[in-house]
Protein backbone atom coordinates (compact mmCIF):
# COMPACT_ATOMS: atom_id res chain seq x y z
CA UNK A 1 0.00 0.00 0.00
CA UNK A 2 2.86 2.42 0.83
CA UNK A 3 4.30 1.94 -2.65
CA UNK A 4 1.03 3.20 -4.20
CA UNK A 5 1.10 6.26 -1.91
CA UNK A 6 4.68 7.02 -2.96
CA UNK A 7 3.81 6.65 -6.64
CA UNK A 8 0.89 9.06 -6.18
CA UNK A 9 3.13 11.57 -4.41
CA UNK A 10 5.70 11.38 -7.19
CA UNK A 11 2.99 11.91 -9.82
CA UNK A 12 1.50 14.84 -7.89
CA UNK A 13 4.91 16.46 -7.45
CA UNK A 14 5.80 15.89 -11.12
CA UNK A 15 2.55 17.57 -12.20
CA UNK A 16 3.15 20.45 -9.77
CA UNK A 17 6.69 20.92 -11.08
CA UNK A 18 5.69 20.74 -14.76
CA UNK A 19 2.82 23.20 -14.33
CA UNK A 20 4.52 25.79 -12.15
CA UNK A 21 8.31 25.69 -12.53
CA UNK A 22 8.39 28.37 -15.24
CA UNK A 23 6.19 30.73 -13.21
CA UNK A 24 8.31 30.30 -10.07
CA UNK A 25 11.56 30.71 -11.98
CA UNK A 26 10.20 33.85 -13.67
CA UNK A 27 9.06 35.23 -10.31
CA UNK A 28 12.56 34.77 -8.86
CA UNK A 29 14.31 36.10 -11.97
CA UNK A 30 12.26 39.32 -11.99
CA UNK A 31 13.38 39.97 -8.43
CA UNK A 32 16.99 38.84 -8.60
CA UNK A 33 17.94 39.65 -12.22
CA UNK A 34 20.16 36.54 -12.27
CA UNK A 35 19.11 33.33 -14.01
CA UNK A 36 21.37 31.14 -11.89
CA UNK A 37 20.07 32.60 -8.64
CA UNK A 38 16.51 32.26 -9.94
CA UNK A 39 17.13 28.58 -10.71
CA UNK A 40 18.50 28.13 -7.18
CA UNK A 41 15.39 29.76 -5.71
CA UNK A 42 13.11 27.59 -7.85
CA UNK A 43 15.00 24.47 -6.76
CA UNK A 44 14.61 25.46 -3.12
CA UNK A 45 10.90 26.18 -3.59
CA UNK A 46 10.29 22.76 -5.10
CA UNK A 47 12.36 21.10 -2.39
CA UNK A 48 10.05 22.70 0.17
CA UNK A 49 7.06 21.61 -1.94
CA UNK A 50 8.31 18.00 -1.98
CA UNK A 51 8.81 18.01 1.77
CA UNK A 52 5.37 19.52 2.42
CA UNK A 53 3.47 17.92 -0.43
CA UNK A 54 0.60 16.90 1.83
CA UNK A 55 0.29 20.47 3.20
CA UNK A 56 -0.07 22.28 -0.15
CA UNK A 57 -3.54 23.86 -0.44
CA UNK A 58 -5.74 23.79 -3.54
CA UNK A 59 -4.37 27.21 -4.55
CA UNK A 60 -1.00 25.59 -5.33
CA UNK A 61 0.48 28.40 -7.36
CA UNK A 62 -0.26 31.00 -4.72
CA UNK A 63 1.30 28.80 -2.06
CA UNK A 64 4.39 28.29 -4.25
CA UNK A 65 4.69 32.06 -4.77
CA UNK A 66 4.52 32.55 -1.01
CA UNK A 67 7.37 30.07 -0.53
CA UNK A 68 9.31 31.69 -3.39
CA UNK A 69 8.92 35.12 -1.84
CA UNK A 70 10.31 33.88 1.47
CA UNK A 71 13.21 32.11 -0.27
CA UNK A 72 14.08 35.27 -2.21
CA UNK A 73 14.05 37.29 1.00
CA UNK A 74 16.18 34.67 2.74
CA UNK A 75 18.85 34.99 0.07
CA UNK A 76 19.12 38.68 1.00
CA UNK A 77 19.25 39.59 -2.67
CA UNK A 78 15.83 41.21 -2.75
CA UNK A 79 17.31 44.59 -1.82
CA UNK A 80 17.64 45.62 -5.47
CA UNK A 81 15.32 48.57 -6.03
CA UNK A 82 12.77 48.10 -8.76
CA UNK A 83 13.99 51.21 -10.55
CA UNK A 84 17.63 50.07 -10.84
CA UNK A 85 17.09 48.18 -14.07
CA UNK A 86 15.11 51.07 -15.54
CA UNK A 87 17.69 53.69 -14.59
CA UNK A 88 20.45 51.73 -16.30
CA UNK A 89 18.43 51.47 -19.50
CA UNK A 90 17.93 54.35 -21.85
CA UNK A 91 15.15 54.32 -24.40
CA UNK A 92 16.43 52.79 -27.64
CA UNK A 93 15.74 54.61 -30.86
CA UNK A 94 13.65 52.34 -33.06
CA UNK A 95 11.18 52.81 -35.85
CA UNK A 96 8.28 55.06 -34.93
CA UNK A 97 7.96 58.34 -33.11
CA UNK A 98 10.80 58.72 -30.61
CA UNK A 99 8.91 61.36 -28.65
CA UNK A 100 6.12 58.87 -27.86
CA UNK A 101 8.66 56.21 -26.88
CA UNK A 102 10.51 58.62 -24.59
CA UNK A 103 7.28 59.75 -22.92
CA UNK A 104 6.27 56.11 -22.37
CA UNK A 105 9.71 55.37 -20.90
CA UNK A 106 9.42 58.36 -18.55
CA UNK A 107 5.95 57.23 -17.44
CA UNK A 108 7.28 53.76 -16.76
CA UNK A 109 10.20 55.20 -14.81
CA UNK A 110 7.82 57.30 -12.68
CA UNK A 111 5.60 54.30 -11.91
CA UNK A 112 8.63 52.16 -11.06
CA UNK A 113 9.99 54.88 -8.77
CA UNK A 114 6.59 55.20 -7.05
CA UNK A 115 6.43 51.42 -6.53
CA UNK A 116 9.98 51.48 -5.19
CA UNK A 117 8.99 54.07 -2.57
CA UNK A 118 6.25 51.79 -1.22
CA UNK A 119 6.83 49.47 1.72
CA UNK A 120 7.99 45.92 0.98
CA UNK A 121 4.57 44.41 1.84
CA UNK A 122 2.81 46.84 -0.53
CA UNK A 123 5.29 46.11 -3.33
CA UNK A 124 4.85 42.38 -2.77
CA UNK A 125 1.05 42.54 -3.10
CA UNK A 126 1.11 44.76 -6.18
CA UNK A 127 3.77 42.75 -7.98
CA UNK A 128 2.09 39.41 -7.24
CA UNK A 129 -1.08 40.72 -8.86
CA UNK A 130 0.52 42.67 -11.73
CA UNK A 131 3.40 40.39 -12.72
CA UNK A 132 2.24 36.99 -11.57
CA UNK A 133 -1.45 37.60 -12.37
CA UNK A 134 -2.60 35.78 -9.24
CA UNK A 135 -6.30 35.28 -8.55
CA UNK A 136 -7.77 36.31 -5.20
CA UNK A 137 -7.38 32.80 -3.78
CA UNK A 138 -3.81 32.48 -5.06
CA UNK A 139 -2.89 35.89 -3.65
CA UNK A 140 -4.30 34.89 -0.27
CA UNK A 141 -2.29 31.66 -0.32
CA UNK A 142 0.89 33.53 -1.32
CA UNK A 143 0.41 36.04 1.50
CA UNK A 144 -0.66 33.41 4.02
CA UNK A 145 -3.93 35.16 4.87
CA UNK A 146 -7.66 34.98 4.10
CA UNK A 147 -9.04 36.05 0.75
CA UNK A 148 -10.73 39.05 2.36
CA UNK A 149 -7.50 40.16 4.03
CA UNK A 150 -5.63 39.79 0.74
CA UNK A 151 -8.25 41.95 -1.02
CA UNK A 152 -7.93 44.62 1.67
CA UNK A 153 -4.11 44.58 1.43
CA UNK A 154 -4.32 44.91 -2.36
CA UNK A 155 -6.79 47.80 -2.13
CA UNK A 156 -4.63 49.64 0.42
CA UNK A 157 -1.46 49.07 -1.63
CA UNK A 158 -3.17 50.42 -4.75
CA UNK A 159 -4.38 53.45 -2.79
CA UNK A 160 -0.86 54.15 -1.50
CA UNK A 161 0.58 53.71 -5.01
CA UNK A 162 -1.97 56.18 -6.38
CA UNK A 163 -0.98 58.65 -3.64
CA UNK A 164 2.71 58.18 -4.52
CA UNK A 165 2.00 58.78 -8.20
CA UNK A 166 0.05 61.96 -7.44
CA UNK A 167 2.61 63.42 -5.04
CA UNK A 168 5.82 65.11 -6.12
CA UNK A 169 8.56 62.50 -6.25
CA UNK A 170 11.43 62.81 -3.75
CA UNK A 171 14.90 63.14 -5.14
CA UNK A 172 16.73 60.01 -6.16
CA UNK A 173 19.28 60.58 -3.39
CA UNK A 174 16.56 60.77 -0.71
CA UNK A 175 14.91 57.53 -1.86
CA UNK A 176 18.18 55.60 -1.89
CA UNK A 177 19.25 56.96 1.52
CA UNK A 178 15.96 55.97 3.15
CA UNK A 179 16.15 52.51 1.60
CA UNK A 180 19.77 51.95 2.70
CA UNK A 181 19.13 53.12 6.24
CA UNK A 182 15.95 51.08 6.54
CA UNK A 183 13.82 54.17 7.13
CA UNK A 184 11.04 53.01 4.86
CA UNK A 185 7.74 51.80 6.27
From TrEMBL:
In terms of InterPro entries, this protein maps to: RNA_pol_sigma-70-like, RNA_pol_sigma-70_dom, RNA_pol_sigma70_r2, RNA_pol_sigma70_r4_t2, RNA_pol_sigma_r2, RNA_pol_sigma_r3/r4-like, WH-like_DNA-bd_sf
Q: Which UniProt keywords apply?
A: Sigma factor, Transcription, Transcription regulation
Note down the stretches annotated as region Disordered: 164-185
Q: Provide the RNA polymerase sigma-70 region domain boundaries.
A: 16-73
Q: Does the keyword Transcription apply?
A: yes
Domain annotation RNA polymerase sigma factor 70 region 4 type: ranges? 109-161
**What's the family?**
Belongs to the sigma-70 factor family. ECF subfamily.
In its UniProt entry, what is this protein called? Sigma-70 family RNA polymerase sigma factor
Amino acid sequence: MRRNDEAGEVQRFSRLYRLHYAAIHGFAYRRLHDRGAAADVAAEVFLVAWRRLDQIPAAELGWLFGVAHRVVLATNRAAHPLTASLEDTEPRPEAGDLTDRYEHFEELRQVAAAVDRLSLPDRQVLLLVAWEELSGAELAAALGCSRGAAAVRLHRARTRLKRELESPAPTKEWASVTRQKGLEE
